[in-house]
Amino acid sequence: MASGDLGTFNVKDFDVIMGVYRLTGFADEMIRVTQDEDTFTDMQGADGEISRVLRVKNKATIVISIMQTSMTNDWLSLLHFIDKKENKPVPFIILDRSGRTIIEAPMAWIVKYTDMEFGGEHKVREWTIRAVNVLTHVGGNS
Questions:
Q1: DSSP state of 46
Q2: Phi/psi of residue 110, each to 5°?
Q3: Radius of gyration of the chain (CA)
Q4: Residue ranges per domain, the chain?
Q5: Pairing of strands 102-110, 135-137
Q6: Which of 44, 98, 111, 113 has minimal CB crowding within 10 Å?
Q7: N- to C-terminal Cα separation, the chain
Q8: What span, in angstroms and rounded, lies between the C-alpha atoms of 77 and 127?
Q9: In the chain, where does DSSP find H-type helix?
Q10: Which pLDDT does position 3 carry in this prediction?
Q11: Cα(133)–Cα(106) distance, rounded to whole angstroms?
């Protein structure tokens, strides 16, 4: 991006797909992706020599915040129910079409049903997903 250019993130150009369903109804804090382990671990010896190990474990924890009124809650509940009964993890992808970020995993599953809270104000459902064999590219926005 040249000096003075303006990058823009557009939530309408942001796709999160789990299985065959495009998730919608995100709360303000839409999504958080955390790599479960460092890519490299290192050790320094007594004489100062340093070695490092490339970790081949490639898991991520994804927390998705959905408004309580969204149909996405129904879909995620169904996915979790089917997975518990039939051992059926599904593909997962995050694609920022207004930018260059992409996160994909061939297998993902819901860790547990979301905690639920009911009251006189709108609530958010936070779904925790575990993904394995994750491929990630963190990019900017055009």
A1: T
A2: -85, 130
A3: 18
A4: 11-38+51-137
A5: antiparallel
A6: 44
A7: 8
A8: 10
A9: 72-86
A10: 59
A11: 7
